Backbone:
């Protein structure tokens, strides 16, 4: 809750939400540009999102950024940088959201409603087995199909596009691997029950029967609703340019033609609308819903998520911790939520979470770093990023120590690394891992970090960085004294 003793709570008048938004838009760039948001900023900004009062939301953010100014910059800390990211992201989300309807059933007078779905089928086209994927948005369709056994490189080569026609659809088929040449036309009679139709050759002289059966996973089979979106306009037809997508204000769930529930939201895509994803966010086996809100610099895409409540048979807002994770992904085998994030142009990371007491709790977070190495006569910097696999965060590219104590590169190609201009000294080090065998989890043995050595330079005595380099199976430390700009008169902390 907002601190009632704060200047914000004492002095800020009660304003309509639109005026609060104007104030937020006025102050946010100042703090965003200063890049001085602490972990408390992220917490308060997140808290502001769930405050019922616009006054509380505005005050929480203002209190947060004031507190961040007092606490100062924290750019060197991985966790602090991620808190900056979260704080910025949540403030942007607040600025993005418009005033929500007082009732979930209410809608703006100019709104329109249209169906959306994503489905897959397995069946036959003529005598051949095929797999088909189609996405519906309003009366438009897009998708692809492949002949079994489908291969990754050709799974989406045969592209389908078209529109509703009666209870079915008329789709054009093109080969994206052959200059998008038209290769046929699909006439689908109906999408209800078994899907049937015909395929016709481009010259109209040849036809083949089409028989498809919907292929549902467990979540799709347990989701009995038809989804319709409420938006301020119908989606524009796709063309050569970038269409202006409508703003979606609600997800409506229908069953047997009756409206069951309305989920209020605020979502607007870029060049196309976002549609809800069916997920199992809390690993209870029941389908949950998630919708992207807007498209910032990837991969930090904020989502709004609803969990299915088995007791009430309705969808409820996911807890704040999950809502605050950008681009969350879900690993049902290990029951882990994970997220790839970006804190700047040159810092990427992965965080993992587990469900605890009704919300998610972070269990690990790793960030990218720069690894120096010598390649012949060149000094290079390799950008090493973490990844998520098999329930763990792992650095696939790394330096490993063998049984005799020598070092070797694992999945690092020196020629792909940048020739070092020493733009970066932050997060520059070499992690040395125990040689992993028989699928065992690798163990971090030690970290070779930059040290500061006093030496003479062309500008006089300075403390210059002594940088560890991987060089032909060993660590070679080099004092970079040739450029005084890299050095300091005082020894850095």
Residues:
């Amino acid at each position: 809750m907002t601190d009632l003793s704060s200047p914000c709570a004492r002095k800020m008048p009660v304003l309509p939400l639109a005026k609060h938004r104007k104030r937020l838009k006025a102050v946010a760039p100042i703090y965003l540009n200063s890049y001085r948001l602490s972990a408390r900023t992220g917490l308060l900004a997140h808290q502001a999102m769930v405050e019922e009062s616009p006054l509380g939301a505005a005050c929480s953010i203002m209190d947060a950024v004031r507190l961040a100014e007092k606490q100062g910059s924290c750019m060197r800390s991985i966790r602090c940088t991620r808190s900056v990211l979260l704080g910025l992201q949540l403030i942007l989300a607040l600025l993005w959201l418009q005033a929500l309807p007082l009732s979930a059933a209410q809608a703006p007078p100019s709104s329109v409603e249209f169906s959306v779905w994503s489905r897959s089928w397995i069946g036959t086209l003529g005598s051949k087995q095929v797999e088909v994927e189609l996405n519906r948005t309003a009366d438009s369709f897009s998708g692809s199909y492949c002949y079994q056994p489908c291969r990754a490189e050709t799974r989406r080569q045969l592209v389908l596009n078209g529109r509703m026609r009666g209870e079915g659809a008329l789709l054009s088929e093109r080969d994206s691997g052959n200059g998008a040449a038209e290769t046929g036309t699909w006439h689908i009679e109906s999408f209800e029950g078994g899907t049937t139709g015909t395929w016709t050759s481009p010259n109209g002289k040849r036809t083949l029967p089409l028989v498809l059966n919907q292929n549902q996973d467990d979540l799709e089979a347990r989701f009995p609703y038809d989804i319709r979106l409420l938006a301020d306009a119908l989606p524009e037809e796709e063309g050569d340019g970038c269409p202006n997508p409508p703003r979606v204000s609600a997800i409506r769930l229908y069953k047997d033609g009756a409206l069951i529930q309305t989920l209020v939201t605020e979502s607007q895509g870029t060049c196309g609308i976002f549609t809800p994803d069916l997920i199992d966010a809390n690993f209870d086996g029941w389908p949950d819903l998630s919708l992207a809100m807007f498209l910032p610099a990837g991969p930090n895409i904020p989502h709004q998520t609803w969990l299915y409540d088995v007791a009430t048979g309705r969808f409820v807002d996911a807890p704040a911790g999950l809502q605050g994770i950008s681009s969350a992904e879900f690993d049902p085998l290990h029951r882990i939520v994970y997220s790839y994030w970006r804190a700047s142009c040159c810092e990427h990371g992965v965080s993992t979470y587990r469900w605890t007491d009704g919300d998610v709790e972070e269990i690990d977070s790793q960030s990218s770093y720069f690894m120096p190495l010598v390649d012949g006569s060149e000094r290079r910097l390799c950008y090493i990023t973490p990844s998520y696999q098999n329930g763990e965060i792992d650095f696939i590219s790394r330096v490993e120590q063998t049984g005799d104590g020598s070092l070797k590169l694992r999945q690092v190609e020196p020629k792909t690394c940048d020739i070092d201009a020493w733009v970066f000294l932050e997060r520059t080090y070499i992690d040395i891992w125990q040689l992993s065998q028989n699928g065992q989890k690798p163990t971090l043995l030690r970290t070779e970090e930059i040290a500061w050595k006093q030496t003479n330079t062309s500008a006089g005595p300075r403390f210059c960085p002594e940088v560890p380099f991987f060089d032909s199976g060993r660590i070679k430390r080099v004092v970079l004294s040739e450029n005084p700009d890299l050095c300091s008169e005082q020894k850095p902390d």
